[in-house]
Design goal:
Blueprint lengths: L2 H16 L6 E6 L2 E9 L5 E9 L4 E5 L1 H4 L9 H5 L1 E2 L3 E4 L4 H20 L5
Antiparallel strand pairs: 1-2, 2-3, 3-4, 4-6, 5-6
Helix pairs in contact: 1-4
Length: 122
Amino acid sequence: MPKSDHETTFQQLRSILQRYEPHLVAVNDKPGNYYLDTSHIQPNKKPLFFGSARIGKQYVSFHLMPVYVWPDLLDGASEDLRRRMQGKSCFNFKKPEPDLLTELAVLTDRGFERCREHGYAR
């Protein structure tokens, strides 16, 4: 994948998460790696992870912990988006795909609202 595709995809995925920064905790905001935690502290004394975008060798990965915690958030997700999944909460992209990124933004919003409902986000 050309580096420009990596960077463009990363910036678009980062912008999906960045909207929630006022309500979450930005742990890492470096080139190629953006990471958010919730303000909820778990029994192990560590904050609950919310999501991240990261440039890898083959893919740009988008991790969204709410879909791991509440798998029903994926009900109604398109097959195209589900094909991008690796594991239970990671979506991999090789290039910008506007329709899938729009769907992922809606899913992220639903995940954030679920976190808020459960007191994991302010």
